[in-house]
Model the fold of this input.
Amino acid sequence: MKIKEVLAVLIIIGIITLVGNFVGANIPMIDAIPGMIFLIAISILGVICSKLIPVRIPAVAYIVTIGCIITIPGFPGSAVFNAWAQKVNFLALATPILAYAGISIGKDLGTLKKTGLRILVVSFIVFIGTYIGSTIIAQLILKLIGEI
Amino acid sequence: MIEAIKNWKLHVLVLILVIIAEWIGAFSFPIGPGKIVLLPMLYALIMGIFLGPKFLKLASHKDMIDAGSLVGVTLMLLMAKYGTTVGPNIPMILRTSPALILQELGNLGTLFLGVPIAVYLGLRRETIGAAHSIAREPNVALIGDVYGLDTPEGRGVMGVYICGTVFGTIFFGLMATFTAAMGIFHPLALAMASGVGSASMMTASVGALSAMFPEIADKIQALGAASNMLSGLDGVYMSLWMALPMTEWLYRKFYKMKYGTYPSQSAVREG
Done:
């Protein structure tokens, strides 16, 4: 994965997101451009880190960490960074990703037929299991420490 | 990847899907004590599936492969955004860290619900692979390592993996909005539970929750992202050291209950 290629993809997704961000969240494209450039810069920085640092950690882990550190209150420029990022709606970012994911899922439909109905039922049960299991524990502890 | 980048037809298709999905906008209707929210990302996903050669034939096999090769990179911007949502909320995340850490154990809920039902449905060793986790990439790799992927256990984990790939996002989006609409659980608890180690499932769940509770949307997103990171870190170890042994044990118990005898050991394990 070359950095130039990643940058090209990010710019394409960035433009699509800015359009969606305008149609869905009514944020003018001009207002959201700094935020988008900021997010692209963080992503590229993360990719560079994963290439330079010899430990095998995926780029997304660096990306989340960098985004987190530079927006912690008190970090130089965090208020500006945060204001930029807020102009890019979180839901608008998710829509193009799921559009690409949806198109790619088409090729898995054939395999799905082979897995059978019983596995499908078990899959849904498994999803419910982890979700409800985690929710119950989180709810109890949050109540216990007085957060909710 | 260079070919996928130059596939302008694909990008234009995505742009059109995004415009249609965002133009329709979030759709909500009341149910019970709460409301169900359907989001543009869900429409985009479903419309994307229907573009394929089996349905509308607007996307070719090559477009599907190209789209798949780009999904990993497209997630980067969202991850950057999650980072910038977590940063300002660090004080709250530290305050709630006991809940955040302990709820990871809730991921074992997969096997407590999954094993009995899988055995009841008549699955044999497939149960082990299918019910020990939510079967994302690290879990598939783990089962492949321990049992091999051409074994019943391997078929179980691959089955759930494929189902998760196709239906996971839709299911998590709907499950989040239905559970929240019941009004039993606090949205922040549901946000923590959203982080199961899959960015797209977490996003679907967190997206639905933030649309339902806009006043605490940033907290929901921050906790979801933080919990997802934790699951990414502890997922494989929890599967290997806790979930797999417990799944094996529970499988034997329920197998005995259904068939009257204990299952014979898998040949792979003996070898």
